[in-house]
Prior knowledge:
Elements: E1 9-14, H1 16-21, E2 22-32, H2 36-43, E3 47-48, E4 53-57, E5 60-64, E6 67-68, E7 85-88, H3 91-102, E8 106-116, E9 119-129, H4 132-155
Antiparallel strand pairs: 1-8, 2-7, 2-9, 3-6, 4-5, 5-7, 8-9
Amino acid sequence: MAEKAHEGEKVIATNKKAFHLYFILEKLEAGVCLVGTEVKSIREGRINLKDSYAVVRGGEPLLLNCHISPYSHGNRENHDPTRSRRLLLHHKEIRKLIGKTQEKGLTLVPLRVYLKRGRVKVELGVAKGKKLFDKRETERRREADRETRAAIKQRR
């Protein structure tokens, strides 16, 4: 379910589980404050978004539980893999996110990490959790689409 990368973007990691667990209502792009070994490790593709999420604390957006493995050629100055990382957004976007996350049931989920003009960016999604029947319905719809594509392909 990974989206196609726009021109000049290189997708490093996607959070496939987020699309299964949440309805994505809105997407936005954010920069991330990283140290040097984290950037090098991300360029190697050693990042995991599986259980990560974002919050706004004290007017500052943070990315939590995002695991960036220690850099393979790093020394004792290597970074902590699961530290909280600051997200870089405009004040207007931060105020909008504060309003959205205070609504009941909405959360911020990182959807993908990519490089854009040499900078690491995170695509955040304002998401609402799916119930079990919603997950089943999505799976049924996906299966039906797959079957129709196969039938069309077989007719040709």
